[in-house]
Design goal:
Elements: H1 2-24, H2 31-49, H3 52-55, H4 58-69, H5 75-83, H6 86-89, H7 92-114, E1 122-124, E2 135-143, E3 149-159, E4 162-170, E5 173-174, H8 175-190, H9 192-201
Amino acid sequence: MQFMRAVAITLVPGIAWLCLALMATPAWAAEPEQVMTELSTNLFAALEKEPRAARHNVDKVRPLVDQLLSPHFDSEYAARLVLGMHWRTASPEQRQLFAAALYHRLLREYADAVIDWTPDRFKLLPVLADPAALRVTVHTLITNSHGTVVPVDFRMHETADGWQIFDVVVDGVSYVRNYHYDTEAEVAQKGLDATIVRLQRTEPGAIGRASPANTPGAH
């Protein structure tokens, strides 16, 4: 009986401390990492189900990637960052069209990249962020087909729908920043409608195959 009482005296403070620690830890602290873990796991699982020929066909992989990525990507926020001051003067229809064109351009690039990714080439690093932060960066390392390790970072922010991606940074090249520079002067000179048409037509190239040689600004 004395032994059990001693054990209780030892365990109760420890359990109480653990409960307080869990209560003090924000429930969302692991969510960005969890979102990316689930996204990558589901992506690789879906790719594994595809026939080998289909997996290396970007047009077939793109709808699959879209289905998994779109719920976790804030296309409107990304478009707002890319347009900058031009967002304020854009009509609701222009905003919607630009956000869609921008997202589908990223989707084409991302789908083109992930066809070469495999679980053993993909490494998700632990998220180290201030618990009060409304934005976090999830760092990953991708080993491309040439054996080069390339950092691919996913910038995320907290929304009413949970943590969502709004930018992808490949080897230091930001998707949002890159397209901001790419479109800013064009919108000012030719207008937003012309930029939307170009984004809808132009082939992707910013992400390529997760290779520094294929990323804009790397040359």
